[in-house]
Specification:
Elements (H helix, E strand, L loop, with lengths): L6 H19 L4 E5 L6 E2 L1 H15 L4 H7 L11 H7 L5 H15 L9 E2 L3 H10 L3 E9 H14 L9 E6 L6 H8 L8 E7 L2 H10 L4 E5 L15 E3 L6
Parallel strand pairs: 1-4, 1-6, 4-5, 6-7, 7-8
Antiparallel strand pairs: 2-3
Helix pairs in contact: 2-3, 2-5
Length: 246
C-alpha cells in the first residue's frame, strides 16, 4: 500500500483543479499539458517485457545471458539500457550492442505500449481536469510513425480522455528528433490552443523551458526517471511523485 501523497503535492493539484472553472468564468480557455513516458506512464514494464522476450529468444544458445536478464526487476532498471545490463553483469560490447538494438526496435513501437502502467492517480486527475473545463494536451516524446496508434489505444484503454473535443495529442514527426529539441520547438506554440494553466513533465529541461515561456503557469516536475546529466530544475518548479490528491 502506498503512503499518502505529500501535502504540497495535494495542494498544487487541487489548486489547478480549482483554477480551471475560475478561468472559464473569466472568459479564458485553460489548457493542462501532460508528458507521457515518465509522467502519465511508467514505461519501465515495457523495458522489462522486451528484455524478457530477448532472454527467451536466446535461452537455448546463450543460457548465461538469459540467466542474467532473468534477475531484472523494476527496481534494477536504469535510464540507460547499458547501465541496466551492467546491473546484472552484462558488459561485453557485442552482447550489449545486440540487446540494445533488440530493445530499441521494440520499445519504440506501438505493439509494446500495452505494457506501460499509468502513474498512480493519473487517469483520474487528467479526467478531472477535462471535466472541470480544461483543454487537455498530451505532449509526448514518442513519434507518430511508430507510436501514434499504440498511444491512442493505451490512453483509451487506461481511462484517459482521448478522441473527444478539447483533447489533443501531439507527438514527434519522426524518431530522429530528440525529445528536448521537439519540446523546445513545440512549447512556444501552445498559446495557439489556449492559456497554459499547468505543465507536467519528468525532465527538468522541459519543465525549465515551459516555465520560461509560461511563468504564471503551474509547472510540475515528476520525480520519476530523468535523463543522465539533466540540468538543475528551476527553483520555482513544483515537485510531485504522482497524481494522487487523496
Amino acid at each position: 500500500m502506498l503512503p499518502p501523497p505529500l501535502p504540497q503535492q495535494v495542494d498544487v493539484l487541487e489548486v489547478i483543479l480549482e483554477r480551471i472553472p475560475m478561468m472559464r468564468e473569466e472568459g479564458g480557455q485553460p489548457v493542462v499539458v501532460f508528458d507521457l513516458d515518465g509522467t502519465l506512464y511508467d514505461s519501465r514494464p515495457r523495458t522489462l517485457a522486451v528484455l524478457a522476450e530477448y532472454a527467451d529468444e536466446v535461452r537455448a544458445d546463450y543460457p548465461d545471458v538469459s540467466e542474467c536478464l532473468d534477475q531484472l526487476d523494476i527496481g534494477r532498471l536504469h535510464y540507460l539500457i547499458s547501465n541496466t545490463l551492467r546491473e546484472v553483469g552484462l558488459t561485453h560490447v557485442d552482447v550489449v550492442r545486440d540487446i540494445t538494438g533488440f530493445w530499441r526496435e521494440r520499445f519504440y513501437s506501438d505493439d509494446y505500449l500495452r505494457h506501460d502502467v499509468p502513474t498512480d492517480g493519473a487517469p483520474e486527475f487528467v479526467t478531472a481536469c477535462y471535466e472541470s473545463g480544461a483543454g487537455v494536451l498530451y505532449l509526448g516524446g514518442r513519434d507518430i510513425p511508430s507510436m501514434l496508434l499504440g498511444t491512442v489505444s493505451s490512453l483509451r484503454d487506461h481511462g484517459f480522455p482521448i478522441g473527444v473535443v478539447g483533447v489533443q495529442l501531439v507527438l514527434k514527426p519522426d524518431a530522429t528528433l530528440g525529445d528536448e529539441a521537439f519540446k523546445r520547438s513545440a512549447i512556444p506554440t501552445l498559446g495557439r490552443i489556449g492559456e497554459t494553466l499547468a505543465f507536467f513533465d519528468n525532465e527538468p529541461a522541459n519543465c525549465n523551458i515551459a516555465h520560461q515561456h509560461f511563468p504564471d503557469a503551474y509547472v510540475a516536475l515528476l520525480e520519476t526517471q530523468q535523463v543522465p546529466g539533466a540540468p538543475d530544475p528551476d527553483e520555482t518548479l513544483h515537485h510531485i511523485v504522482d497524481f494522487r490528491v487523496g
